Amino acid sequence: MKNEKFTILEGLVSGGRMRYNRRVAEIAEFHLPKHKVLWGFYVKRSVAMVERLRTVYQGGVGEIVEKKSRFIATVRLVESEEEALTVLEAARKKYWDATHNCFAYVIGERREPVRCSDAGEPSGTAGRPMLDVLLGEEITNVIVIVTRYFGGTLLGTGGLVRAYSRAVQEGLAHSRLIEKMYGVRMEIQSDYTGIGKIQYLLASGQIPVLDTRYTDQVVTEVLVPKGQADRIRSEITEGTNGRAKMRETEELYFAVLDGEIIYKDALSQYKTLKM
After folding, report:
1. Which one of 64, 189, 209, 230 has the minimum C-beta count within 10 Å?
2. Residue 139 forms beta bridges with which residues?
3. Same domain, yes or no, for 161 and 225?
4. How crowded is the C-beta side of 248, counted as CA atoms within 13 Å?
5. Cα separation values, 258 from 7, 54, 176, 209, 236, Å
6. Do 189 and 237 sit in the same domain of this protein?
């Protein structure tokens, strides 16, 4: 579901005088009428999509040992809090005998909501450092659970922070991450005279080509990042003297991994909520 960007005129009372501050609030997964009062604020709706998202393509498991304590980091792709909690429950069942099952997750295009838990470790020594790693890497739609088996030696506050942070980094290192781009699926129709120029422009712009069909005309199907669509359209129009016809068929997220174009269901083909 698309995120919505709202411009809010917020009235603040200070010293008996009314001041107005304009701020932008980005709220995910809500559909509001064009104008609506929300929590006493005036809201004007406009749509905005995040053009690039870093996320998990294939989860993994990494492990470190610190003074005989084992820290096992499990990384999974999740796309809702419900999925995150399902993965967490599965981890608790699998590692039922562990000393701690700490977690952190980040959901959504705007990286909201976020949650973390120390799960019995001293406050601020596990969940928050784990979350800081995810936020620092700018990863979303991810949950990391770090399972600890106590080795008999106390690590201290600093030692715990370093161990949990390093465990998350190890889990990410054993996972495959991708950068999803928001773009448009576009069909370009041209005669054989203009196809060479079109192919040159697409290659120069590193635009992924999904398919090329040769009949009496040449139809090339491409995925263009949203921010480049106008430029590509203009360059092709100019390069073919206006002979090429272009049609946008849909907007979607896609990624390019090891030269392979990944989009739609393939983006989550490795998602599993099991351990």
Report:
1. 230
2. 54
3. no
4. 12
5. 40, 16, 11, 15, 27
6. yes
Is the same domain home to 187 and 254? yes
Dihedral pair phi/psi, residue 153, rounded to 5°? -120, 125
* Residue 83 and residue 38 share a domain: no
Express each pLDDT in 98-135 by its tens digit.
999 999 999 999 888 899 999 999 999 999 999 999 99
C-alpha torsion 224→228→229→235, nearest 10:
-110
Flag whether the pTM goes above 0.70: yes
> How many residues does this entry show for the chain?
275
To the nearest 10 degrees (0 to 180), the angle between helices 195-204 and 229-239 is 150
Give a yes or no: residue 61 inside a domain: yes
List strand residue ranges (DSSP E) for the chain, in order.
4-14, 17-27, 35-38, 41-47, 52-58, 61-66, 69-77, 100-106, 114-117, 139-140, 142-149, 176-190, 209-214, 218-225, 245-257, 260-263
* CB-CB neighbours of 33 under 10 Å: 7
Looking at the structure of the chain, the number of domains it has is 3
CA 180/CA 256 separation, integer angstroms: 8
User: What is the average per-residue pLDDT within 242-256?
Assistant: 95
Range of the domain at 120: 54-174
Q: What is the pLDDT of residue 34?
A: 33
Q: Same domain, yes or no, for 61 and 163?
A: yes
Is 274 within a domain? Answer: no
What average pLDDT does the structure give for the chain? 85
- Among 112, 139, 174, the domain boundary falls at 174
Chain segment 2-23, per-residue pLDDT in tens: 333 333 323 333 333 333 233 3
CA neighbor of 94 nearest in space, from 61, 46, 120, 136: 61
> Dihedral (C-alpha) 149, 152, 158, 159: value to the nearest 10 degrees?
-70
